[in-house]
Design goal:
With 175 residues, the protein is of the alpha+beta class. It has helices at residues 4-9, 24-35, 54-61, 86-104, 117-124, 154-157, 166-169; strands at 46-51, 75-81, 109-114, 131-139, 148-149, 152-153. The strands form 2 sheets. The chain has a 4-stranded antiparallel β-sheet, sandwiched between helices. It has a two-stranded antiparallel ribbon with strand order 5-6. Helix 2 packs antiparallel against helix 4. Bound molecules: flavin mononucleotide.
């Protein structure tokens, strides 16, 4: 298992999965990592909907423009928030990263899928006073997977590969 720093900097989006299921004890750790994430005033503005049924995963995959990785994943966790206010979605992002890093420490890859709420809400039965904006696919990475998103090369879709240089984004004392 990688040390925390290397676990963080080696976490990359995995969109092509081996069909092997995620063991229940590891799934439990992933969810506990989300649950124990800190949040503004400890409001914990999230619910996690665990999806393993193939038909439901396929239905969710149809709810996002770049969500087809859900079709190959053995597991997804949808994050439902109490509101779409900045701090609630910020907290949800922190919980997502906690779960993804916990999975990665076990060799399990993941990728976020942005979802159209009107499409995804009825699929998961999310109540009207809660918000559903994304789900996370989890699964063991497929060997020799193509570097594609929706069948297209990554660099055709994404803003860029890798990361912006350190000195371009780090400011010392003042911008
Ligand atoms: C808020 C958010 C929404 C995202 N939505 C999608 C998505 O709908 N489909 C997808 O394939 N990846 C999605 N991603 C994953 C990003 O494309 C990925 O984090 C980014 O390209 C960096 O990938 P890398 O860590 O492999 O370099 C999303 C990521 C975030 C943070």
């Amino acid at each position: 298992m990688a040390d925390p720093y290397h676990n963080i900097i080696s976490l990359r989006a995995v969109r092509h999965f081996d069909p092997a299921p995620i063991p229940d004890n590891i799934l439990r750790h992933i969810l506990q990592a989300g649950r124990w994430t800190g949040s503004a005033k400890n409001t914990q503005p999230w619910h996690f909907v665990v999806v393993r049924e193939r038909g439901t995963l396929d239905a969710l995959a149809g709810c996002g423009r770049y969500a087809s990785h859900l079709r190959a994943a053995p597991l997804a966790v949808a994050i439902v928030t109490a509101s779409t206010r900045f701090w609630d979605t910020f907290d949800a992002g922190r919980a997502a990263q906690s779960m993804m890093l916990t999975a990665w420490a076990e060799g399990i890859g993941s990728c976020i899928a942005g979802l159209d709420a009107a499409c995804a809400r009825p699929v998961l039965g999310v109540p009207d006073d809660h918000h559903l904006q994304l789900a996370i696919s989890f699964g063991y990475p497929q060997a020799n997977a193509p570097h594609t998103i929706e069948g297209r090369p990554l660099d055709e879709v994404l803003a860029g590969l890798g990361r912006v240089p350190f000195d371009e984004i780090v400011h010392w004392e003042r911008w």
